[in-house]
Every structure is written in C-alpha cells, then in structure tokens.
Amino acid sequence: MPAYISHYGIRAKNYKEMVEWYKTVFNARVQHENEFLSFMTFDDEHHRLVIFEDPETVDRVPTAAGIDHIGYGVASFGDLVSTYERLKALGIRPFLPLNHKFTTSLYYRDPDGNEVELSVDNFSKQECDDFIRSEKMNEIGFPPFGCEFDADELARMYHAGASDTELARIGIPA
C-alpha cells in the first residue's frame, strides 16, 4: 500500500515553456535538468514533478479519458491570495475559480493545457472529511462541481480583513 504520492510525470509538447511555468507557479527548484528532462521539487521531497520531452508527443483531446487535473493544497486563504496575486502580476490567471463548499480553488492551465488546481480547505480536516462523507456532497452538482466566484473579489475581501468563514462562502448563493 502506498504511503503517499511521491511525484508525477508530464510528457511535454512544449518542454522549455512547461519547465519555466512550473518553476514560476510552484516556486519549484530544478534538481536535475538536461535538454529533454527535468526533475523538480517545491518542498523537502527530492522530486515532485518530472517533465520530459518526447518528439512523438501529440496534443491530447481535451475530453479524453484520464487524469483531468492535479490538485495542490495551500495552507491558508492568505497563501491562496498571495499566489493568485503573484501569478496574476506575471500574466498567469486562473481559467476557473470554484468554491466546492469544502474547498476554495483556482484552476490554471499549463502551457500544454494540463489543468492544475490550487486550493485551500474551507473547514478543519475533520469537517472536510465529514462533508465529503455526507449527503452535502450532492449539493456541489455536475461539472464544474461548485460555484464560480471572482478571484479579484476574494483578494479584495482578504485584504479588507474578512474572516476565513466569510472567505469560505465566496460564490455560494445565500
């Protein structure tokens, strides 16, 4: 039985752009790199991401079966907002901000079109576990599985001193 997810690999069509994007978005550092392969990490693991180039790589059909997105958690609303603002200043904007009721998420596309989710839990770990196991999960609906919100409004609310409870309600109809 696995102890944790150690890393994932991305077959890249736009290798150099992909490496730069993940370095920027994750503040990742390159552990090893050559002209077609890059091992990267953003924490104490030796590598969390492998990006490699294969000349036979073709575009993936957007609705193809398989992994839809990779989600990364951040520690707080402050971290989500500061990451959003840092990336926005660099021209990297989320294509879909969603409140899933138990998490608040920003979805981005990397240069090859892979979806990357950055999210913060809206409740304690136990409350999130309880939510997922409850009938409340049926309330998030069909894709996109949540309520859209304005990321700039989230940032404005955060800087105005809104509580985590208030921030966790963004986009959810009253």
Structure characterization notes:
By secondary structure, this protein is of the alpha+beta class. The chain folds into two domains: 8-53, 2,3-Dihydroxybiphenyl 1,2-Dioxygenase, domain 1; 69-167, Signal recognition particle alu RNA binding heterodimer, srp9/1 (2-Layer Sandwich), CATH 3.30.720.110. The chain has helices at residues 15-26, 77-89, 125-132, 151-159, 164-167, and strands spanning 8-12, 29-33, 37-41, 49-53, 69-73, 96-99, 103-109, 115-121, 147-148. The protein has a five-stranded mixed β-sheet with strand order 5-8-7-6-9, with helices on one face. A four-stranded mixed β-sheet has the order 1-4-3-2, covered by helices on one side. A hairpin with a 7-residue loop joins strand 3 (37-41) and strand 4 (49-53). Helix 2 (77-89) packs across helix 4 (151-159). The protein is globular, with a radius of gyration of 17 Å. The mean pLDDT is 95.
Question: What's the gyration radius in Å?
Answer: 17 Å
* Helical proportion, percent range: 25-40%
Mean pLDDT: 95
The total of beta strands comes to 9
| CATH architectural grouping of the largest domain | 2-Layer Sandwich
Helix-strand blueprint:
Elements: E1 8-12, H1 15-26, E2 29-33, E3 37-41, E4 49-53, E5 69-73, H2 77-89, E6 96-99, E7 103-109, E8 115-121, H3 125-132, E9 147-148, H4 151-159, H5 164-167
Parallel strand pairs: 1-4, 5-8
Antiparallel strand pairs: 2-3, 3-4, 6-7, 6-9, 7-8
Helix pairs in contact: 2-4
